[in-house]
Write a structure and sequence with these properties.
Blueprint: E1 2-8, E2 14-22, H1 42-51
Antiparallel strand pairs: 1-2
Length: 52
C-alpha cells in the first residue's frame, strides 16, 4: 500500500508534507493489541536512530 503522509496542526492545516510512503504487505492479519502502533514518520525514525 502507498500513502501520502502529512503533519497537520489542531485546525487541520497541513504544516509539513513527508511525501509518499510505501507500506509493505503483511502475511495475515496484524497482531491483536490495544496499543497504538509506533509512529514511523521520518522525524520519529531520526529521533530513534540518534537515541540508539
Amino acid at each position: 500500500m502507498t500513502i501520502r503522509v502529512h503533519q497537520v496542526d489542531r485546525y487541520g492545516t497541513v504544516t509539513r508534507e513527508y511525501g509518499t510512503v510505501s507500506i509493505p504487505h503483511r502475511k495475515g492479519p496484524p497482531p491483536l493489541t490495544s496499543a497504538l502502533p509506533s509512529c514511523a514518520c521520518p522525524d520519529r525514525r531520526a529521533e530513534e536512530a540518534t537515541a540508539q
